[in-house]
Task: structure prediction
Amino acid sequence: MRNIKVVLEYEGTRYHGWQYQENAQTIQGVVEEALFRLTGERRRVVGAGRTDRGVHARGQVANFFLEKALPLHKIEMGLNAHLPRDVVVKSAEEVPAAFHARFSAKAREYQYFISPRPTALLRHFCWPFFLPFDPSLLKTMAERVVGEHDFGAFARVEVQSNHKRCRVSEAHWRYENGLWIFRIVANRFLHGMVRTLVGTMMDVARGRLSLDDFERIFQSRDRCQAGPAAPARGLILEAVHY
Result:
């Protein structure tokens, strides 16, 4: 059995997230179906991050075991031939049997995109946010989340782990090509964490909440205290680091 690692790019607009669901179209589902059509083998494809419905990826990593002796370039080309156009395999490589796309990962990198003006070309890849806001407050909050903290206030209640601590190594906002972009890198992310962080930050930046409120919410570890999650379409899983 060969352990194959692939890097995937996809537009999540018409998918119900990464994870396979019985009665819904998911990224995992279409990749597993493409693999079956290529090889005749039914294999579980494990992803590094379980992106939510509507979330995109530029550098999702997945792995699967395969018996068929296909060359790597034929795996890459063959999967792309069977995948829909909004899901692409960017690379394929053989890795040691112990490699696991999710559990071997050291860090994941996300970016969230906000457009302060209407856009036609990027409408599926950003949050159109037309209210005035203070970018300096965004910078302050990004600095606050760096380090190891309990992010329970920014995660969905049903978290599949025994704790809600994450170690954030980078978090910052920048303005680039007409977009406000939030970049965050951490060893792990809780379900809904980035979108809830962004939604709460924007509530502070536009004056609906204060910086003191943000700190109170952070310390509360209570999701009910935080703001609404930002729309899924603005979030991209950029890379997974090993």
In short: DSSP finds five helices and ten strands in the chain. The beta strands are 2-10, 46-47, 56-66, 87-95, 107-115, 127-128, 147-150, 165-176, 179-186, 235-241.
